[in-house]
Amino acid sequence: MCSNLLNLTVDLEGNQIDAQIISNLGSAISKCCNLSSLTLNLRWIKIGSLCILNLGPWLANCTQLSTLVLQFTGSQFGDKGSSILGFALAKGTQLQNLSLFLESNQITAYGASDLGSGLVMCSKLSFLHLNLRNNLIGDLGANNLGFTLSKCAKLSNLTIDISFLLNLNYLNKRQI
Q: For a 10 Å CB count at each end of the chain, is N or C smaller?
């Protein structure tokens, strides 16, 4: 099908798609056996943890994948989705460059820990950009994530954003 394809960008930001479409997308991507770079933008699509589960298996089939950008901002998959994603990423044995945009997904310390456990299994990972802004990770999650990532032996470039911005409009409405 797409055996000559080396780089792929899929941008579905803000679309209304369901688990079946995500599953079909993952299946199609897994057939791109020589893919070395993938950017997948599913920002602001409420895919939930089940859809992350559907996407996971394709990563194991993309054995040449060295650069991966996953944009899941506002996808509402929580700790379960973060854990599944960590497990799926652990299968990316060739991953060297990884950017994860997981802002606003209701991820707590538990989900961040599971994600970190998966990332540490990526033995060739040298560049990591991890955006976990506006989640519920807290001090414990930040500490655990930092400790886990310190075990990534080849990691030479690391950017982590775990800031949390309160929505003041939401707070003001709640006080009324």
A: C
User: 109-139 burial, b if ≥16 CB within 10 A, otherwise e?
Assistant: bbbbbbbbbbbbbbeebbbbebbbbbbbbee
Evaluate whether 49 touches 81 at the Cβ level (below 8 Å): yes
Q: Indicate the burial class of 23 (C-beta count within 10 angstroms; 0-12, 13-18, 19 or more).
A: middle
CA atoms within 13 A on the CB side of 18: 1
pLDDT tens-place string over residues 46-86: 877 666 776 767 777 788 899 999 999 998 889 999 998 99
Within-domain flag for 100: yes
Tally of domains within the chain: 1
CA nearest neighbour of 96 among 64, 71, 72, 70: 64
Residues pairing with 161 in the sheet: 131
Residue 104 carries which DSSP code?
S
pTM of the predicted model as reported, rounded to 2 decimal places: 0.89
